[in-house]
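Troubleshooting: if your tokenizer reports a length mismatch, compare your output against this known-good record of 347 residues.
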Amino acid sequence: MQLVEIVKAINRKASVLILDEPTSPLTIKETEILYHIIEILRKQQVTIIYISHRMGEIFDLSDRITILRDGKKISTCNTKDVTREDLIRQMVGRELNETYPEGANKPGDTILELKEVYGNGLQNISMYARKGEILGLAGLVGAGRTELVRLIYGADKIEQGEVILNGKTVHINSPEKAVELGIGLLPEDRKLQGLILELSIRDNISLSSLKAISRWTVLNKKKEQEIVDENFKYLRIKAPSSRQLVKSLSGGNQQKVVISKWLAAKPQILIFDEPTRGIDVGAKHEIYLLMRKLVEQGICIIMVSSEMEELLGMADRVYIMREGKISGEIESRNDFSQENIMNFASN
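Known-good structure output:
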């Protein structure tokens, strides 16, 4: 779909082409194709404005960089004259000494186990996740990672196999059942599946906990506001008030609203599907810190990410998927490497 959008833009024979986060849903091979197309257009004297939160792309492709923050231009510089650290500092307005916060906690008991699960195009999935750990799901685009978390969340049907939660077999046949069992999902596409854009921040945050703050279908407005105020402050959502429409927020603040919605529901398992897609460096760091805090509280996080650095920096353990199956597991951070993951993902 993204490649079709890019081809459509190119076919207009424009003299100025704006590419806004063009590679976020692309595979490595598709990204290489885009790089090649950009080189051809550059030689044809097409001006390209390339918007991206991925530092590697900015340095690979650009001649000049303009940094924006809070709706204002901070600076413009030649790419060859700036370092990655300089760029990040100007983007966030402060020093970020560590991109991925260290985790000192030790995972606890197994909270979720899948035994020979089939469904949604997946085959023979057996895996486990523990309390207080970040479990990474790696693999190339189309390997089945999102399909797997949708099965766990009850969005798609499990055809065969067993799901065990806290030592008991459960049947998660709907998202409603998953929420009831303490499982939350931050979907890959937050605008389409994670938020109701025409509603306020407050209405979105309280969505997953309406049963807990209602009596006989009548919403307790006071309880709702207490939950909203607590999470609004805790996640430092940047908005004048919780009554602001969520569609007007930046990508990072929209993601914070999705996270707030699930924290209000008191989950025991949180699934993050591409947690930092389309989010600036400063907001990424805040989300990473939050993820670490959550696992320290004993919450289990299952994280799907297409960014290799993110997986290696945040996960405590990684399953790798290929063609709808689990092709490997890396149990120790000492064995984490891009080479190991790619071997399991592509061989």
